[in-house]
Amino acid sequence: MSGTLGIAVIGTGKMGADHVRRLDRRTAGARVAAVADLDGDRVKEIAAGLDGCAAFTDPHAALAAPGVEAVLVASPGPAHEEILLAAIERGLPVLCEKPLTPEPDGALRVMEAEQRAGRRLVQVGFMRRHDAEYEQLKALLATGALGRPLFLHCRHRNASSPSFFTSDMLISDSVVHEVDAARWLLDQEVTAVTVLSPAPSGAAPEGLRDPQLVLLETSGGAIVDVEIFVNCGFGYQVVCEAVGESGSARIGDGQSVLVQSAGRWGGEIAQDYTVRFADAYDRQVRRWVDATRRGRVTGPSAWDGYAAAAVSEAGLAARRTGTRTPVVLAPRPELYA
Ligand code: ISE
Question: Does ligand 1 come within 6 angstroms of the Cβ of 280?
Answer without folding.
Answer: no
